[in-house]
């Protein structure tokens, strides 16, 4: 089964909460609640709805960006990028029991997150996507192969999920680069049946 992290998104059709519900119904065990440009109170309200549902489905719940809220709500962890709280600072606040993921686009980013104590890396973008503004340079398959081989040479063992514009068809080739898992949003939410698409993705490799 593919290790899949679903990133919530709001569309014309689905709310953030509904997007997560469909991924959970499809069997996804790892949800990141990502609600950009949303007041903290609204993020908190959705996280409070989602937490018991993730528990029911034995799924991990991470918050994008919000370290203090993750601590307050006792979710499983956070995902942090370059513009967010530094990972070592988040670790001091959250302790070892919380999962902390970090965004990387280069091997230098990987090194920085490794030394700061990240639990996993979200490396991307694989290709252009409209789900995130201000994208870093697109990596393609070559980018992942290069970063993974540099990690191996440096004996850096951290789980890596690929992210950014990934579809069902891309997954086998991406996993063959040595990446451990996939994070995605749009290709599930654009599918005619997002629950079925989640199942199809989980079973594709
Ligand atoms: C799994 C995963 N990888 C990368 C990101 C991007 O995080 P960040 O760079 O902080 O950008 P925003 O998502 O906050 O816009 C992610 N969220 N998840
Ligand atoms: C959060 C994030 N970080 C890099 S690309 C991306 C968006 C992923 O969503 P999609 O699968 O719709 O491209
Ligand atoms: Mg962020």
UniProtKB/TrEMBL annotation:
Residues annotated for 2-[(2R,5Z)-2-carboxy-4-methylthiazol-5(2H)-ylidene]ethyl phosphate binding in this entry: 129-131, 165
EC number, as in UniProt: 2.5.1.3
Cofactor(s) named in the record: Mg(2+)
InterPro entries in alphabetical order: Aldolase_TIM (IPR013785), ThiamineP_synth_sf (IPR036206), ThiamineP_synth_TenI (IPR022998), TMP_synthase (IPR034291)
Protein's UniProt keywords contain Transferase: yes
Cofactor details (free text): Binds 1 Mg(2+) ion per subunit.
A single GO cellular-component term on record: cytoplasm
Biological processes annotated in GO: thiamine biosynthetic process; thiamine diphosphate biosynthetic process
Superkingdom, taxonomy of origin: Bacteria
Short name of one Pfam family: TMP-TENI
Stated role: Condenses 4-methyl-5-(beta-hydroxyethyl)thiazole monophosphate (THZ-P) and 2-methyl-4-amino-5-hydroxymethyl pyrimidine pyrophosphate (HMP-PP) to form thiamine monophosphate (TMP).
Name the UniProt record assigns to this protein: Thiamine-phosphate synthase
Provenance organism: Bacteroides faecalis
Gene for this chain: thiE
């Amino acid at each position: 089964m593919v290790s899949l992290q679903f990133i919530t998104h709001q569309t014309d059709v689905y709310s953030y909460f509904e997007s997560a519900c469909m991924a959970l119904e499809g069997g996804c065990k790892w949800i990141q609640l990502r609600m950009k440009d949303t007041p903290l109170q609204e993020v908190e309200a959705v996280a409070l709805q989602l937490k018991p549902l993730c528990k029911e489905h034995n799924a991990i719940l991470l918050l994008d960006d919000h370290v203090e809220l993750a601590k307050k709500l006792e979710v499983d962890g956070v995902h942090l990028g370059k513009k967010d709280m530094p990972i070592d600072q988040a670790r001091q606040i959250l302790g070892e029991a919380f999962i902390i993921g970090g965004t990387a686009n280069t091997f230098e980013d990987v090194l920085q997150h490794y030394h700061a104590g990240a639990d996993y890396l979200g490396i991307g973008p694989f290709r252009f996507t409209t789900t995130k503004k201000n994208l870093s340079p697109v990596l393609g398959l070559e980018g992942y192969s290069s970063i993974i081989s540099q990690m191996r040479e440096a004996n850096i063992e951290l789980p890596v999920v690929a992210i950014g514009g990934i579809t069902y068809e891309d997954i086998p080739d991406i996993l063959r680069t040595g990446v451990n898992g996939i994070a995605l949003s749009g290709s599930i939410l654009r599918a005619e049946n997002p629950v079925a698409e989640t199942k199809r993705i989980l079973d594709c490799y």
